[in-house]
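A student in our group prepared the protein record below, which I am reviewing. I have pasted the whole thing underneath without changing anything:
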Amino acid sequence: MTESIKTKAIRGILWNAIDKFAAQGVQFIIGIILARLLMPKDFGLIGMLSIFIALSQSFIDSGMGSGLIQKQNRSDVDFSTVFVFNLCVSLFFYGILFITAPLIAKFYNLPQLVNLTRVLSLNIIINSLAIVQRSKLIINIDFKTFAKVNVVSVLTGGIIAVFFAYAGFGVWALVIQNLISATVSVLMLWLLSKWKPSLSFSKESFKDLFGFGSKLLISGLYARTLNEIYNLVIGKTYSASDLGYYTRSKQIAEVSAGTVNSIMQQVTYPILASLQNDKEQLISVFNRLIKMTAFFIFPAMTLLALLADPFIRFFLTNKWEPAIILLQWLCFAKVFTPICSINMNILNAIGRSDLFLKVDLSKAPLIIIVLVITVPMGLKAIVIGNVITSGIAFFINAYMPGKLFGYGAIKQLKDMIPVFFATGLMAVSVYVSISFTESLILKLILGSLVGIIIYGIISHFLKIEGTKEIKNVLKSLLQKTEKNHVNRKKDGN
């Protein structure tokens, strides 16, 4: 990795991490307050609609945002073409959801879903207005702006949602939260972005971008369907409250896994894409990204699983007790998600969206079969099945990188052995430490401190690669802080 690429990568990861953790931190606090004010059923009702919103969103983007990032010689016409396409498609799909809202309500046998669908679906139109702006920020690896936008939008939407939840608006507080957050995000991206649409549309540009993005569209539809089908099946088979337990535990699990995944995915894709013509450097960066991701994700998810019981009981109260066991299993289901994403990102980075699609489609039979088997057995069986499929999915996702670059599942797992060892010792230490107290808050504090300290010490002695990168980032930040201090002192004199 050259110094310029390395610096850009570290800076991008750092600002993206600040963005995600700050936004997730705010979202976490807001989520706790809302979970205390609202009922599991309210979260379940929103979960029932997620698959319809998600599929519509896939059609709107159609992979063309990724096409812009991957393309080397972009023009303003390309950006405007994508904007016009996104807007038109969003209006089309909003119309479909508006018309079919009664059918969705009839499917779940819940009449209140009619109005919920029609209002919540407005998010589709709102989000379509800033897809290009987001793509441009990713291209420029400008995650500092992302951080500002996401934190402000999440905070604004969350505060307003808490007010409405406290006022007794129930599930509508969650709808308002989504709409306000999306609106604030779009407004800020328009204000902070230097690019404005010209409303021009080029058939040639569309053909080029859609040629790449169409495969990602199919893959995205498939991925979102399989991801959201759990909500659909649970919502249809069980109660809205049961779905609420599942969606809330899934959201908590994704605070760690989803944050790391989003950070690595957004930063690594443009960097890997910029190296697509330098195979040796591409493989080197890919290798280091896998090891760095494992360094963070495995201890984080293991620690969350160990502390799931006191976490749920203390923050969400005992009314969310059924979510504890679901959260524990979902932590292990999500542990390979960021690593799988990097394995898929490298395929898109080299322009092989066709392979991306083939890999994704190959996992469908496995997921469907496991879901069919586990659904009659209850929620616990469903999430255990999710753990099994996610483990197998890692081997499937890593197959193509192994074939193309000689760095497949076995070599990746071998590189993770030190992380597995350090995580295992950390888990034993945490389990023992929290067994000496019955206090929920002490379990959380003691378990977290012991986990971080033990893992840090073991990682240091084992010289796990992630520790070196953290040291470099901290050193860079310290040097920058000292430099700024000196400059301010000079200016003062």
